[in-house]
Specification:
Length: 155
Amino acid sequence: MKRSTSHRALLYGRSAALGCVVLLLLVAGVLSSWSSAQHIVLAKGREHGTMTVTGCGADVCTGPFAPAEHATARSRVTIEQSVAVRKGGRFPVVVKPGTDEVVRTGMPGFLHSWVPLGGALLLAAPIIGGLRLTRTAWGTGMAGAVPLVATFIAL
C-alpha cells in the first residue's frame, strides 16, 4: 500500500518536531548544569577552601569559609541546601567570583552539578523512543540515569 505525499509529510513533520523538543531538552539541561559546573571544571584561579555549615534555611545553608591557598577568609558564605549538607558538616568548596556563594567541589560536587543534564536525558529518552529509535532511547535513558544514581550514592 502506497502512502500519500501528505501522510509522508506529516510523518517527517512529526519527527522534526520531536527532534526539536529533544534538542531543546538537551540544550536546557547542558546550560542549567553548566551554570554551576563551570566553577568546578574551570576552577583554576578561583578561591578554594572549606566551608563549615552553621545553619540552614529553606533554600540555602550558611557558614564560614576557611581558605586553602591564595583565598580570603569569609565569615559567611552560602550554598544551596540541596547538596546534602548538614549542620556541622565540612566540605571543600570553590567561591563563585564576585559573590559570597560557594559550590561544592570534588566528585560529589561535580556529579551534583550535572544532575540537570541527567534529568534532561531521562526526559528525552521516551521522546526518542517515540521516534522509533529504541536503542538510542535506551542509551539516552541509561546515560541520564547513571549520573543521577552516582550523585545519590556520592552525596
